[in-house]
């Protein structure tokens, strides 16, 4: 269970980071 949560986290975090970077690019 713990290991599964970690793998989900490692998939979600880069997605969130790229989304925030895209939003910053749209604002500029």
Can you walk through the features of this model?
By secondary structure, the protein is mainly α. Helices cover 93% and strands 0% of the residues. It is built from 1 helix and no strands. The chain has one helix at residues 2-27. It starts with a helix and ends with a helix. The mean pLDDT is 89.
Calculate the terminal CA-CA distance, rounded to whole Å: 41 Å
Q: Helical percent range?
A: over 70%
* SS element count, helices: 1
In total, the number of strands is 0
Region (Disordered): 1-28
SSE order and pairing:
Elements lengths: L1 H26 L1
How would you briefly describe this protein structure?
Residues 1-28 are annotated as: Disordered. By secondary structure, the protein is mainly α.
Provide tags for this entry.
93% helix, 1 helix, mainly alpha, 28 residues
């Amino acid at each position: 269970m713990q290991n599964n949560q970690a793998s989900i986290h490692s998939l979600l975090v880069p997605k969130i980071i790229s989304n925030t970077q895209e939003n910053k690019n749209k604002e500029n």
